[in-house]
Specification:
The complex is a heterodimer of chains A (about 375) and B (about 140).
Chain A: E1 3-12, H1 14-30, E2 36-42, E3 45-48, H2 54-57, H3 60-65, E4 70-72, E5 80-82, E6 86-94, H4 107-111, H5 113-120, E7 127-129, E8 133-136, E9 139-148, E10 153-161, H6 166-172, H7 182-191, H8 195-198, H9 205-220, E11 223-226, H10 231-245, H11 248-251, E12 259-268, E13 271-280, E14 283-291, H12 297-307, E15 310-311, H13 314-327, H14 337-360
Parallel strand pairs in A: 1-2, 1-11, 3-4
Antiparallel strand pairs in A: 2-6, 3-5, 6-10, 7-8, 8-9, 9-10, 12-13, 13-14, 14-15
Chain B: E1 12-13, E2 18-22, E3 28-32, H1 34-40, E4 43-47, E5 54-55, E6 60-66, E7 70-74, E8 79-84, H2 86-90, H3 93-97, E9 106-110, H4 113-118, H5 126-140
Antiparallel strand pairs in B: 1-2, 2-3, 3-9, 4-6, 5-8, 6-7, 8-9
Classes of the chains: A alpha+beta (about 375), B alpha+beta (about 140).
Chain lengths: ~375, ~140
């Protein structure tokens, strides 16, 4: 049986936590360090995905005012909050090897098996949802990401919601809401879940951590050896933290294609439909679907998830939405697909107009500093 | 049933599954091949080097976010970037939809094409290499 290294940390800063994960994956890629599972918590912070525009994803004024550090992950996916109630999972392994995990194409699914297997022992039935979520009964409980380092190492990231203060999260993240009232909080709470909510009894983060650790042992058939960073690793971590994760060029980096926001409100037979999308070129980066029509939050969450990183082309949207409507035909009865497409296309057109305006006026109302990082 | 992967015989391939093709004007067009793309999934975001910037074979020239992972793009040859494909920046899915034509990434004025292209796979060596790469992909999961 193979042995992987296991590292536990608590209360790490955003910059140190991210630097440590990248160093572990870099070294795993070159074979200097063993495959390592790290289960840890951060000091309160907000992290955006590799190519997100930080100003569009986080409420930076609120973060500054409340001294909440912000940073950028090397992995993809959306903006998240991390803190004492969110368990960080980092798995650093070589990208090429003869291990059993190497033959799996859907690696994100495979690497999350440790979490799935562990939480199953608590009676929580977690499912992988492409592209990068873990869900319990259609509600998100963890976000996932995978990064291949320049050395060929793989870094798998997960943020597992042991508990979540939805109101706090909505203040930290940029949201399409005009104001954050009980209605908005309850709507978001309906689309996510936590281990505290799913477990029959109150559970500590440490108990969840042990459960996930055992899950990885079972899922990958490996021993775990409790360890810590070596002196050499610590030196590399400090250096990478200084050079990259404490560098505003990385954190606030601009992207080749600027995000553009588009909104539309249309009247349908079932009620008002409120759509908010973020567009990057011809890709929908995120979508929010709200309004006063009656439907299930699960179905709306599925629609929004299906639209993430989706082409904005009409035909392609119709194909995808048709599949979602087949899954939720009863629940979406009050939201006709034709109305949704009409609303989406209107929001997309507005975002496209905004993008054209930005590209013809690059010195507009906000600044996106350039980056020295690839 | 095993998936079929298309390789165009008129270009050079490297182990990162980037293809290089010399155009009539001597410039080299760079793109990603189908096998490499299959291990990454649908492209969500691409960052490419600016026109006029130098790139060096084996060094990072850009980065990408795909459905299955994020990662760096390594230059298959050295030279100066003379053009980048704005269409794939605006619509990264184009790389998956048409990797050998409309989904090209950049064009490079090569610094040392004769030597560097010799280090890539082309011509008669392609069929065997393709076969071994597909086998490698089947057992290791990630091309490149």
């Amino acid at each position: 049986m193979n042995t992987w290294r296991y590292i536990e940390n608590n209360d790490v800063t955003a910059s140190a936590g991210l630097a440590a994960d990248e160093v572990l994956a870099n070294r795993a890629g070159t074979g200097i360090s063993q495959p390592t599972l790290r289960l840890y918590t951060y000091q309160p912070c907000a992290l955006v995905g590799r190519f997100q525009t930080i100003e569009n994803e986080l409420n930076l004024d609120y973060c500054v005012k409340n001294k909440i550090p912000v940073n950028r992950r090397p992995t993809g996916g959306g903006a998240i909050i991390m803190g004492e109630n969110q368990l960080g999972v980092a798995l650093a392994i070589p990208g090429k090897s003869d291990e059993t995990y190497a033959s799996v194409r859907e690696r994100m699914a495979q690497f999350s098996q440790g979490i799935i297997s562990g939480l199953a022992t608590l009676g929580i039935n977690v499912e992988f949802r492409r592209k990068n979520d873990l869900e319990v009964n259609g509600k998100k409980i963890a976000g996932l990401g995978l990064h291949k380092t320049a050395t060929g190492g793989l870094l798998f990231h997960a943020s597992l919601l042991v508990d979540l203060d939805v109101a706090y999260m909505l203040n930290v993240l940029q949201t399409p809401f005009e104001k954050i009232s009980d209605k908005e909080i309850s709507s978001v709470a309906e689309r996510t879940t936590t281990i505290q909510r799913e477990n029959l009894n109150p559970i500590t983060l440490n108990k969840v951590r042990r459960t996930v650790l055992n899950g990885y042992k079972t899922a990958f058939g490996v021993n775990m050896e409790l360890s810590d960073f070596s002196h050499e690793e610590m030196d590399e971590i400090r250096q990478l933290e200084k050079d990259k994760y404490m560098d505003s060029g990385w954190i606030f980096q601009s992207t080749d294609v600027t995000d553009a926001v588009g909104k539309s409100i249309i009247k349908t037979d079932g009620g008002l439909l409120d759509i908010h999308i973020v567009l990057a070129g011809r890709m929908i980066k995120s979508a929010y679907i709200g309004g006063d029509f009656f439907t299930s939050e699960h179905a709306i969450a599925d629609l929004e998830q299906s639209l993430r990183w989706h082409s904005s082309q009409d035909k392609s949207l119709t194909e995808t939405l048709t599949q979602v409507y087949e899954r939720w035909s009863g629940d979406l009865a009050n939201l006709p697909m034709e109305s949704l497409i009409k609303g989406l296309m209107s929001a997309i057109q507005k975002a496209e107009i905004m993008a054209r305006k930005h590209s013809s006026d690059p010195y507009g109302c906000f600044v996106t500093p350039g980056s020295a990082h690839a | 049933m095993k998936k079929q992967f298309d390789f165009k015989p008129d270009r050079f391939y490297n182990s990162n599954h980037l293809w290089s093709k010399q155009e009539d004007d001597g410039r080299i067009t760079i793109g990603m091949d189908e096998l490499g793309l299959d291990s990454l999934g649908e492209m969500a975001y691409l960052s490419l080097p600016a026109v006029g910037s130098p790139v060096e074979m084996g060094k990072v020239m850009g980065s990408m976010e795909a459905a299955k992972m994020t990662g760096e793009l390594f230059a298959p040859i050295s030279g100066i970037v003379v053009e980048k494909n704005d269409a794939v920046l605006q619509n990264p899915l184009l790389v998956n939809e048409d990797p050998f034509d409309k989904g090209w990434l950049i064009k490079i004025e090569p610094a040392n094409w004769a030597d560097e292209s010799a280090a890539m796979v082309s011509g008669d060596a392609l069929p065997d290499w393709m076969k071994s790469e597909i086998e490698r992909f089947e057992t290791q999961g990630i091309a490149g």
